[in-house]
Please model this.
Amino acid sequence: MIRIENRVQPTVTASSWSRRRWLGGVLGAAGAALLAGCATPPPDAPTQPAEPPAPPPRPPRIGLALGGGAARGFAHVGVIQVLEREGVRPDLVVGTSAGSVVAALFAAGLSGAELERAALEMEEAIIADWTVPWFNRGLLRGEALARYVNRLVQGRLIEDMRLPLGILATDLANGQGVLFRRGDTGTAVRASSAVPGVFSPVNIGGRTYVDGGLVAPVPVEQARAMGAERVIAVDISSPAVPLAQTDPLRVLLQTFTIMGQTINRHVLTHADVVVRPALDGVGSTDFAARQRSIAAGRAAMQAALPVLREALKKSPAERRG
Model:
């Protein structure tokens, strides 16, 4: 026997159909919004990597050019002491004549205090190895000066110095300046200091050399040639004064003084900072005034610091003409 049940089917009216459509639309919209919120956003467009910051400008290379002037050269020590105190470390040093002595000691690593101690202990007898001028073409051989320098630099060759060093001398055969960058330090200093008629000329490698001041009393251009972008030039030359005596040696030295002044007027225009210690009354052979000369060097460098600071602010490309 089969049981048959009659079921009543629900009646669908127009109003219920509208409500269903509305509910479906709401649910559909909500689902779409939910899916949109959960969807992974498209990747951003690739961005350019940030450029690294520009490196700070490189400080200019500083060259220290120390001029000739015999015993007045003690003033170079005072100049170096002020630079040391101010934290200004030259990148290279070049010297002519008396300046070559201080340049060599400074390049070897002697501090300002050590340079002053060496200056105060230095006696004229250390370099005064007298000879007969008729046979050696000079009053001093200069060998004692070479030994003195080599002792203080502990035998270092020019190329082995802690600071790049240049020593200027003059080739007697052709009158050209020669910048020694290698070899025996004392011999090069001796050649640079060989004032004709006072020191015997120096033979190096088959050529004869005399005082570098004949071509550059202050070796500014030589410092440029070694790579200096800022040059501190120290001028310790003597002014020409009326001669009380006219013996041949005094006339010769006066001639060198006049010639040096003429050269310096051109050379020093190419320096960025010119330091002129007040050495009035200090003669080229006045070893007794060494402390006064050192103090004059300190005072002159102190006065030149504003000019030096301005020069160092400029980039290497802004070299003074």
User: Anything to note?
Assistant: Confidence is low (pLDDT under 50) at residues 1-17. The first strand starts at residue 62 and ends at 66. The two ends are 127 Å apart (CA to CA). The beta strands are 62-66, 92-96, 165-171, 177-180, 202-204, 207-211, 230-234, 273-275.
